[in-house]
Structure formats: C-alpha cells, structure tokens
C-alpha cells in the first residue's frame, strides 16, 4: 500500500482515538448540542473506534481498508452536517472536514484511483 495512505490511516485512527477516549467530555457536550441521545453517541463512538482499528490493521492487510475508510468518511460527513445544523464556527468544523478528506484519499488509494 502507498506510504502516504498508510500515514493518513494512522492520522485518522489516532485522531479518532484521541477525541473519543481522551476528550470524551467534549463529545458528550457536542452530542447534547446536536440533540442526539446517549445511545446514538455510544453507537457512533464504538463504530468509530472499530473503524479506526481496522484502518490501522489495513496497513498490514490492505483488503481491510476500503469499507472502513468509506464508513468513517460517511461518519465525518454526518459530523459536518451536524456542525452546520447548529451553526458551529469553522474552527469546530475543520477537524472532521480534514478527516473526511483523508478518508476520501484513503479510499481512492485503496481503489487504485490514486497511485
């Protein structure tokens, strides 16, 4: 697999892990701001942690990369929707937008659209 895609996979995985493990208090505030319940937050968090783990495993097993990258990208697009819905400033939107772009890049490399 492409070295830059592997670096992108690590960046996405570490970012998701950091936010959902070490900054969980911010996640709770954001989901409350969005009007989403605790069950939704738990499902999204668990899904993101699993997908992040698969992206890291995909460094050694490239067949694992495409679906997690697309699903993580979908979750980042959903984050963008909710940031816009509550009119958050760009400083709050940029992290998920950057991770969305990385997920699109990872998926494109996985599909061999980018070498």
Walkthrough of the structure:
This protein is mainly α and 115 residues long. It has one domain (3-110). Helices cover 80% and strands 0% of the residues. It contains 5 helices and no strands. It has helices at residues 3-22, 24-34, 38-57, 66-85, 90-110. Helix 1 packs antiparallel against helix 3. The longest helix is centred in the last third of the chain and has 21 residues, at 90-110. The radius of gyration is 14 Å and the shape is globular. The N and C termini lie close together (9 Å). 25% of the residues are buried. The mean pLDDT is 96. It is found in: Membrane. Keywords: Membrane, Transmembrane, Transmembrane helix. The chain crosses the membrane at residues 6-28, 49-82, 94-114. It comes from Hymenobacter frigidus. It is a multi-pass membrane protein.
How many distinct beta strands?
0
- SSE order, one letter for each helix or strand: HHHHH
End-to-end separation in angstroms reads 9 Å
Low-confidence stretches: none
Q: Please estimate the helix content.
A: over 70%
Biggest β-sheet description: none
Overall pLDDT metric: 96
How much of the polypeptide forms β-strand, as a percent range? under 5%
Radius of gyration: 14 Å
Which term fits the overall shape? globular
Number of helices: 5
Structural class: mainly alpha
How many domain units?
1
In short:
The protein has 115 residues and is an all-alpha fold. It is 80% helix and 0% strand. The N and C termini lie close together (9 Å).
């Amino acid at each position: 697999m492409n070295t830059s895609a592997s670096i992108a996979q690590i960046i996405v995985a570490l970012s998701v892990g950091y936010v959902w493990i070490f900054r969980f208090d911010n996640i709770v505030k954001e989901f409350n701001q969005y009007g989403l319940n605790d069950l939704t937050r738990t499902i999204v968090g668990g899904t993101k942690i699993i997908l992040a783990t698969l992206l890291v495993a995909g460094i050694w097993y490239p067949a694992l990369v495409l679906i997690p990258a697309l699903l993580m990208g979908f979750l980042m697009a959903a984050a963008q929707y909710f940031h816009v819905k509550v009119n958050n400033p760009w400083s709050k939107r940029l992290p998920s937008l950057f991770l969305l772009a990385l997920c699109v890049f990872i998926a494109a490399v996985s599909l061999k659209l980018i070498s």
